[in-house]
Amino acid sequence: MATGLYSSDVIYIQKEKLENFIHNKEEWAVLIPGYLHHELLNEKDMIWVFQGDFGIIQKAVKVELRLKTSEPHQVLFDLVGLSDPINGDGSFEIKQHQDESFQIIGSLTMKASGFLAGMMNPVLEKFVPQLVEQLVIQMAMKVAKE
Known about the structure:
Elements: E1 2-7, H1 15-23, H2 25-29, E2 35-40, E3 45-54, E4 57-71, E5 74-81, E6 86-96, E7 102-112, H3 117-145
């Protein structure tokens, strides 16, 4: 199972703005590396399509993001592969420091199943941590500009 965890640098912003940002999936969906498009199915579910760079293979990956829990400081979700048998889960969490600054902590776990699992899982081991790091950095940069 491929896992990525990344924490942003310190961000100085109003807490409400940061909470609104992590809860608005459409705001951060466009920041994923290789973003192609997304479709909001309802308040909880979204289809996310991005170009995955898996070393020697580049392909469009289509997943459904299903919101599990949404608290003011945290968003938990499941990912269900629609184009490939790749499933997982993830989260974005806001951590507040003593000086009223914040960090965004992102985590993602993905696992391939089926016929290509033996080939895909080692590739995901490298891909997932990079994806999480790049996404959290982009999220922090975007929210810091606002």
